[in-house]
Amino acid sequence: MTAQHPRGRPRGTTKRELELIAMRLFSEQGFEETTVEQIAAAAGISGRTFFRYFPGKAEVLWYSFDDEVTGLRAAFAAVPPGEPMMAAVRRVVVNANRYRAEDVPELRTRMKLVADVPALAATAGAHYDAWERAVGEFAAARLGEPAESLIPMAVGRTTLAAARAAFDAWLARADADLTVYLDRALAGLEQGFTTQNAEPVTTTG
User: Fold this and answer.
1) Angle, nearest 10°, between helix axes 63-77 and 15-29?
2) Of 57, 93, 124, 198, which residue is 20 to 30 A from 190 by alpha carbon distance?
3) What sign does the CA torsion over 64, 115, 155, 93 have?
4) What's the pLDDT tens digit per position in 174-204?
5) Beta carbons of 26 and 34 less than 8 angstroms apart
């Protein structure tokens, strides 16, 4: 994966490969210190070829997040009509963030980079907006309202806020699975943050 291939893209180079290489380089030498050319060279491609995959180095780390948005849309499309709206939102979002134990270090690395590097955080808006819209459009369809109307927009935005709070708490503590934090935060949202759902997260291990 780190071999040099000066004549262009070798067979098998993918967005996923570039994501892993970029994450490793960002972690080892810093985001600002890592160039597109270094990422491309580690993948055995040219800098010009890199830009066929991504518009810039910051966008590399959003690749998996954008796939999650696609998965959310598909999961919402399959929600049974009788399932309560916010219960469905909670279930779908939690299920979209179930990771194998061996994938957790990579997830934490990606999230920490996005949280700690201002240039990466600055690219978050469009990706968070797409995630938020996926939730809001499901709410709109369930409520029979336009996606840009108040309640669907509120559902999308508050769900994103609750999920981001869960991500941040998990990133800081790492004392339980991410889904424990997500389920707790979204249960609170679903139930109106009553005292009955205000107990602390139960840790594992």
Assistant:
1) 130
2) 124
3) positive
4) 778 999 999 999 999 999 988 655 555 555 4
5) yes
